[in-house]
Amino acid sequence: MRGAGPGSALLRPGKQPLSHTGALVDPQVLIDRDIARLALERTLLWVALWAYVVAFACYLLHFAAPRLKAFRNGATAGLVAAAALQTIVIILRTISKGASPFQSLYESLAWFAWMTVVAYLVIEWRRQVRLPGFFVSLIAGGAVLYALLGQSPEIKPLFPALQSVWFFWHVAIAFASYAIFVVAFSVELAYLIQILLWKLEAREVPAFFWWPLRILVAPFRVTAEYGITRENIARFHRSVHQLVLFGFPMLAFGIMSGAAWANEAWGVYWQWDPKETWSLITWFAFALYLHTRVRPRWRGAPSSLIMIIAFACMVTTFIGISWLAKLLGIPSLHLYG
């Protein structure tokens, strides 16, 4: 059984476990070891969550006082620390299970947060712009918080339908695309906030909307200290297009490998299951976004709006459909916990 890896406490009935040397091992020793390892995982994940909180707070303070390097560097350090801690958690989880560390929703949320932060740190390093980190730390921290408070960390045997060569590639590549889309969405929001700040400063917004919008972006200032200027904002905004171009083939591969996996498990490539349907909707939404980028008349507000809609579709596919299916009792082949 794939769920009972070398480090698992799952034992065959009537069988005494053996060590790697062939000697008999007391089952309680293995159970105590797994409990200690799980406690260490949870502790490290909680510390990672607090690192996200520190990063989020530093980003907020950086927006209020952009000239202070301590807040700017502290925000990045918080994300690096969180990513490092989650790397250790992923390694420990893999050792404990002897299998991929994204088989349950608890594991998937932690994996998703880790991949998102790693992808963002690459963009922050390349662009030297920290505005999107505010949203990345919020989303990644939220995913970890939901994993810790809303999901069980118990290691369970893998469902028979999931025991396939397609499992690792389908899940790993799909989550990589999700992580890239989160970063793209965060860059899009940062771009829109910067444009809005300039319009508010120039009083190009109708008076009726000026104060509500000013309150909405209250933590932010009109300053080049954020790393976005009128000279480089177009290049910064192109990062959204480049990220989606990178993530879109991954999403397509995730859908196609999922179809191949479904045929192997259930004898049919496509059943219009809620998860399958929304994954296809998400694919079309991002395809439409890419189309807007080659149509000059659509590159402004329409392109940004479609990007936000596509991201909402992705969130629905990732977690919304599973939650709604459980809540409303909608039949789905993808409800594995």
Question: Could you walk me through the main structural features you see in this protein, from its secondary elements to its overall organization?
Answer:
With 337 residues, this protein is mainly alpha-helical. It has one domain. It has nine helices and no strands. It has helices spanning 27-64, 69-97, 105-127, 133-150, 166-201, 207-216, 233-266, 274-292, 301-328. α1 runs antiparallel to α4, α2 (69-97) packs antiparallel against α3 and α5 packs across α9. The two termini are 18 Å apart.
Approximate strand percentage: under 5%
Mean pLDDT across all residues, rounded? 79
Poorly predicted runs = 1-15
Q: Major beta sheet, specifics?
A: none
In short:
Helices cover 70% and strands 0% of the residues. The protein has helices spanning 27-64, 69-97, 105-127, 133-150, 166-201, 207-216, 233-266, 274-292, 301-328.
Keywords:
337 residues, mainly alpha, globular, disordered N terminus
Task: Please give the structural blueprint.
Elements: H1 27-64, H2 69-97, H3 105-127, H4 133-150, H5 166-201, H6 207-216, H7 233-266, H8 274-292, H9 301-328
Helix pairs in contact: 1-2, 1-4, 2-3, 3-4, 3-5, 4-5, 5-7, 5-9, 7-8, 8-9
